[in-house]
Amino acid sequence: MERIFAVGLLLISFTFPIHANEALLKHTTAVAQAMSAMYMEALTHGNAKYENDLVFHTQVADEHMQSLAASDLAGAKAFNQRWLSMKEKLNVEYTPDYEWDVHADIRRDFRRYQTELYDLVNQNIQQYQQPPLMKMLALTQVETMIARFFDISTSPTGTSTLSPVDEKTVNLPTIGKEFNQVMNNMIKAPFYQSYAKKLSSAHYKWKFIEKSVVNYSNESAHFLVYATKNKINKALSIGQEVSAN
Prior knowledge:
Blueprint: H1 2-10, H2 18-43, H3 48-70, H4 76-87, H5 104-123, H6 125-128, H7 134-153, H8 164-169, H9 172-188, H10 196-214, H11 222-237
């Protein structure tokens, strides 16, 4: 089944319509936000704040998937079917065997879904490195990195749980370098001149947590990373472009 899906991805067009690109980036971002919220809810033993965040970001991911599935992007309908199955599993509850930890099967399936989504993003990353999609790409990159950090830093087995495909596709040091370059390019770009201070602030906040995130440090303060990533998201979302359909 995985081999068939991988072959399907290779057949996807390398030039997506702009509205399909936007829907893909926004869905991938919301999926990452839902993942971070899920692990924070587990860490806090069902805290309502993170439960609400998980519900909200799952709903947002669902909305953008509907837009993606309605586009002419090859492979979108297959992702839609997988998402419909995946989203029903995204809840945190106490069990005698796992207590508040996320079940290993859910971790694996959600990680695989995120990996394959980001692989689709990465196939067309050159298209996103120019306005108007550049800021959406930065959001996708930072949220994806932080979600993977939460996944692995809270896992009892750490990085050993990553498959070779997971490790290659969502490689945090590599994405971190790409994100830093995207941020530097945006800060200098005339298109984003009116947001330059906000962009610089977001980049500074990322540098504050970057080392902990890309190294999967389970000794870092998860609360601090989560709060900081929300500030980064807020700064990058100001004046967010909306492309023409």
